[in-house]
Amino acid sequence: MAHTEVNKGIKDTEMDRLDQARIALAEYFWTKVSDIGTKGCWMWKGRTGRGGYGYFTYGPKTYRAHRLSWLITRGEIPEDIFVCHRCDVPACVNPDHLFLGTYYDR
Ligand SMILES: [Zn+2]
């Protein structure tokens, strides 16, 4: 995600529009989360891909669901940092089960 670069030099009104877009995205995102699974996991009911991770397509972009969950609830993910699961359930998007780690933490 390159929001930081994109946001540079944008006027306030454009930032508002960006926020609106983010809210719309977040609302749609949470409709794709099904019931709470074992261990309190929030199970992704959208498409899943390699490794069992959830994928979320919104407009022209496809995101990994758990990374997007982090973006929506916690904020930006630094470059070269992974969003990892404490619960070892790849399809889980509960932000409380996620943490930021390096490649070696996975
Ligand atoms: Zn979980």
Descriptors:
106 residues; globular; 3 helices; alpha+beta; two-stranded antiparallel sheet; binds zinc ion
Describe the structure.
This protein is of the alpha+beta class and 106 residues long. The chain has one domain (3-105). It has helices at residues 3-7, 12-30, 65-73, and strands spanning 33-36, 42-44, 55-58, 61-64, 82-85, 98-101. It has a two-stranded antiparallel ribbon. The chain has a two-stranded antiparallel sheet with strand order 3-4. It has a two-stranded antiparallel sheet with strand order 5-6. The longest helix is centred in the first third of the chain and has 19 residues, at 12-30. The chain binds zinc ion (ZN). The site of zinc ion (ZN) has 7 residues, from loops.
Poorly predicted tracts of residues: none
N/C terminus separation: 20 Å
Q: Count up the domains.
A: 1
What level of helicity do the residues show? 25-40%
Strand order of the largest sheet: 1-2
| Sheet with the most strands, sense and barrel status | 2 strands, antiparallel
By oligomeric state, this entry counts as: single chain
